[in-house]
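Researcher: Next sequence.
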Amino acid sequence: MTLDEKKIKEKTSAISEIDKIIHEPARMLIMSYLFVLESADFIFLRAQTGLTWGNLSSHMTKLEKAKYVSIEKKFIRKKPHTIAGLTEEGKAAFKKYRKEMKQILE
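Model: Next structure:
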């Protein structure tokens, strides 16, 4: 096996092991925003991602089930307000994902 073939095999293997929860484009975008912000409300996330309310909610549920995000629901002046933030596990997973993607793309 040549050096180039070995590199290709390593990268292919790395791609197959990438975190599929984060790698989905909408969830990667959500994770990216939450990684740089301490927290964000759903109104902000919907506006920034361009997702519908239903899609945003669905993706946030998947991230919450993976324990990557925490979601807090409260009322402000009798109106529901939902805030999300990355958990420590979510931050670690996103850092690992970024590192792996950089290695794959080099």
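Model: Residues 3 and 47 are 46 Å apart (CA to CA). The first strand starts at residue 40 and ends at 41.
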